[in-house]
């Protein structure tokens, strides 16, 4: 369904010329958090360059499987049975996103779920950049007790009516994003935009419908199924600032990345580095775009004194990885 909404008067704020020309504030509800989970509802609020609402759109989506945590999103199998498949709404959804910056709360999750659905449909999402409102609130230094949507909403006096309903979550986020955007513009804050790269590889195995509840599905694979071989090189120790990476170094990743995480990990492996799934005293380097976050890897990196670089710096280091020492 589509409803046109009135546009408020434009703010007299002198607007940064480098800011985007439009935004698509998005929320999706899903069958779960894993990479094989599916979208069951989606909402988009389209905003103009200054954050004024142009229109909104909402749909349920039949995931063709168990809907997962109904106690969270409230969408039962019966409610979703007659809903369109993702392939049925892909074109309309894409038209809502095209030419705009995708805005979401914890944007990497919404982006990856959307990108995977389009990969299944053998289509490309018309989005090139995303903006996470958690990252923006950090850039603005908002005094929030945590990074939940409800805390951001409360800060700006936005009232939530139906938490975990895609349309209401998108509305709340749109209402909270507008003053955030204006505050950023007034202070000349750089918007924390990240690149959206579409998925180009997808393999799937049938996932049976089950009634035993959330989390009972075999995972599918987003890249050709294979187990990475063990790194053939010994760990030469920690990365030192100003020096090149060396084959065998243990690299850990944390948080949102512009490049799809598995592709980034593949590049590291191809360069002769050891990709670690956890962080320990043996970790050579942590790659994260948010070194101030409270993720377990970032916290451990602080405790152990593990060197930290962002994704862009890591990309530069990957260009010239030093060969391993002869044993």
Describe the structure.
Strand 5, helix 4 and strand 6 (129-132) form a beta-alpha-beta unit. With 327 residues, the chain is α/β, with parallel strands linked by helices. The protein is built from 10 helices and 11 strands.
Mean pLDDT: 86
Structural class: alpha/beta
> N-to-C SSE series?
EEEEHHHEHEHHHEEHEEHEH
Q: What percent of residues are in strands?
A: 15-25%
Output the radius of gyration: 21 Å
For the record, give the distance between the C-alpha atoms at the N and C termini, rounded to a whole number. 66 Å
Strand order of the largest sheet: 1-4-3-2-5-6-7
Main sheet characteristics: 7 strands, mixed
Helix content range? 25-40%
- Number of separate strands: 11
Number of helices: 10
The geometry reads as globular
Low-confidence stretches: 1-10, 206-226
Task: Show the helix and strand layout.
Layout: E1 2-4, E2 22-30, E3 39-48, E4 53-60, H1 70-73, H2 77-81, H3 86-97, E5 101-104, H4 107-120, E6 129-132, H5 133-140, H6 149-155, H7 166-187, E7 193-195, E8 250-254, H8 261-270, E9 274-276, E10 285-288, H9 296-304, E11 308-309, H10 311-318
Parallel strand pairs: 2-5, 5-6, 8-9, 8-10, 10-11
Antiparallel strand pairs: 1-4, 2-3, 3-4, 6-7
Helix pairs in contact: 5-7, 6-7
What keyword list fits this structure?
327 residues, alpha/beta, seven-stranded mixed sheet, 10 helices, 30% helix, globular, disordered N terminus
Could you write a compact summary of the structure shown?
This protein is α/β, with parallel strands linked by helices. It has helices at 70-73, 77-81, 86-97, 107-120, 133-140, 149-155, 166-187, 261-270, 296-304, 311-318, and strands spanning 2-4, 22-30, 39-48, 53-60, 101-104, 129-132, 193-195, 250-254, 274-276, 285-288, 308-309. The termini are far apart.
């Amino acid at each position: 369904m589509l409803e046109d909404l009135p546009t408020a008067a434009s703010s007299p704020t002198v607007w940064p010329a480098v800011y985007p020309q439009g935004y698509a504030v998005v929320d999706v509800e899903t069958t779960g958090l894993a990479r094989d989970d599916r979208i069951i509802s989606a909402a988009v609020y389209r905003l103009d360059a200054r954050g004024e609402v142009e229109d909104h759109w909402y749909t349920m989506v039949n995931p063709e499987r168990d809907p997962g945590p109904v106690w969270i999103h409230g969408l039962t199998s019966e409610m979703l049975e007659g809903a369109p498949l993702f392939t049925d709404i892909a074109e309309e959804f894409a038209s809502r996103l095209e030419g705009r910056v995708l805005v979401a709360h914890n944007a990497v999750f919404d982006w990856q779920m959307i990108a995977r659905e389009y990969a299944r449909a053998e289509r490309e999402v018309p989005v090139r950049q995303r903006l996470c409102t958690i990252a923006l609130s950090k850039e603005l230094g908002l005094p929030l007790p945590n990074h939940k949507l409800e805390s951001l909403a409360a800060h700006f006096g936005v009232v939530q009516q139906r938490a975990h309903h895609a349309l209401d979550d998108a509305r709340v986020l749109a209402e909270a994003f507008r003053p955030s955007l204006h505050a950023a513009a007034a202070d000349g804050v750089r918007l924390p935009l990240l690149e959206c790269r579409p998925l180009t590889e997808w393999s799937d195995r049938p996932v049976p419908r089950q009634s035993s509840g959330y989390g009972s599905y075999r995972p599918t694979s987003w890249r050709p199924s294979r187990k990475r071989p063990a790194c053939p090189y010994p760990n030469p120790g920690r990365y030192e600032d100003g020096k090149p990476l060396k084959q065998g170094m243990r690299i850990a990743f944390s948080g949102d990345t512009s490049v799809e995480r598995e592709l980034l990990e593949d590049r590291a492996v191809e360069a002769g580095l050891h990709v670690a799934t956890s962080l320990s005293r043996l970790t050579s380097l942590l790659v994260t775009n948010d070194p101030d976050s409270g993720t377990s890897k970032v916290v451990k990196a602080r405790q152990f004194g593990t060197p930290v670089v962002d994704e862009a710096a890591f990309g530069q280091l990957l260009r010239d990885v030093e060969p391993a020492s002869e044993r």
